[in-house]
Amino acid sequence: MDKFTIYILLFVAFCGKDVVCKRRPVKKDDGGKIVGGNDTTIQTYPYQAYLLLFDGRDYYQCGGSIISQYYIVTAAHCLARIQTIYVRIGSTNSNSGGLEYETSIFSSHPFYDDVTSDYDVGIVTVAEGMSLDGTNARTIDMVGYGSDVTDGETVVVTGWGAISEGGPTSETLMVTSVPAVERTRCNEILGGGITTRMFCAGFTEGGRDTCQGDSGGPAVTGSLLAGVTSFGFGCARPNSPGVYTRIGNINVRFYIALMTGI
């Protein structure tokens, strides 16, 4: 039995509940799948990475996006107080298959604010380089500087997060699509706090959304990485769109370029 699988079994056995409203990294036994989504395969979304994070006591899960052989984009809030990250790529299943890497090299945007979730972006570095076969694991290109989503634009999100608030666990990669919500309108709906480093996406009636455990995962428009799953108030609730870090914001995009050269 490989080391990564042993870690999975240990924390599934011993971790307790971690119920939160914002999309924070969750302990594995509180994970599951995207709300209102469908099973998919890593071959369809080969840029998706699974991150198992260890803080010295507990294990948590987040997602990430492969942008090069050495770098994964994720959410800064996933990296808070973390000591070690175990990365799995190239597998539809979060607990087995694909390739595994261990790293303690990561960074968060220097302006990240844990209270407001502004600048919620981080970089995980795999120093030895990940093996990307182009079928099960490959990079995704990012949107350019200044790029923003447009109202109603389709945003595709993937991950291994919760099927509902506190819902059951799934090992299978899930996908759903949600429409972008204009920023001014999103601020009205959520009572403010949505900055130009963020964008919102979700249906007025709810029903589809990312959820706890999807944090850090990709939000894609067309074929480009446009966002990072950041936070939300509950999961898939009516009039409560999910919030994503906006990759195209110049300060977010510059940080990624500074850390990765991409």
TrEMBL record:
<keyword id="KW-0720">Serine protease</keyword>
<keyword id="KW-1205">Fibrinolytic toxin</keyword>
<dbReference type="InterPro" id="IPR001314">
    <property type="entry name" value="Peptidase_S1A"/>
</dbReference>
<feature type="domain" description="Peptidase S1">
    <location>
        <begin position="34"/>
        <end position="262"/>
    </location>
</feature>
<dbReference type="GO" id="GO:0090729">
    <property type="term" value="F:toxin activity"/>
</dbReference>
<dbReference type="Pfam" id="PF00089">
    <property type="entry name" value="Trypsin"/>
</dbReference>
<keyword id="KW-1015">Disulfide bond</keyword>
<dbReference type="InterPro" id="IPR050430">
    <property type="entry name" value="Peptidase_S1"/>
</dbReference>
<keyword id="KW-0645">Protease</keyword>
<dbReference type="InterPro" id="IPR009003">
    <property type="entry name" value="Peptidase_S1_PA"/>
</dbReference>
<comment type="function">
    <text>Fibrinolytic activity; shows preferential cleavage of Arg-Gly bonds in all three fibrinogen chains. Contact with the caterpillars causes severe bleeding, due the anticoagulant effect of the protein.</text>
</comment>
<dbReference type="GO" id="GO:0006508">
    <property type="term" value="P:proteolysis"/>
</dbReference>
<feature type="signal peptide">
    <location>
        <begin position="1"/>
        <end position="21"/>
    </location>
</feature>
<dbReference type="InterPro" id="IPR018114">
    <property type="entry name" value="TRYPSIN_HIS"/>
</dbReference>
<dbReference type="InterPro" id="IPR043504">
    <property type="entry name" value="Peptidase_S1_PA_chymotrypsin"/>
</dbReference>
<keyword id="KW-0732">Signal</keyword>
<protein>
    <submittedName>
        <fullName>Trypsin Blo t 3</fullName>
    </submittedName>
</protein>
<keyword id="KW-0800">Toxin</keyword>
<dbReference type="GO" id="GO:0005576">
    <property type="term" value="C:extracellular region"/>
</dbReference>
<dbReference type="InterPro" id="IPR001254">
    <property type="entry name" value="Trypsin_dom"/>
</dbReference>
<keyword id="KW-0378">Hydrolase</keyword>
<keyword id="KW-1199">Hemostasis impairing toxin</keyword>
<comment type="similarity">
    <text>Belongs to the peptidase S1 family. CLIP subfamily.</text>
</comment>
<dbReference type="GO" id="GO:0004252">
    <property type="term" value="F:serine-type endopeptidase activity"/>
</dbReference>
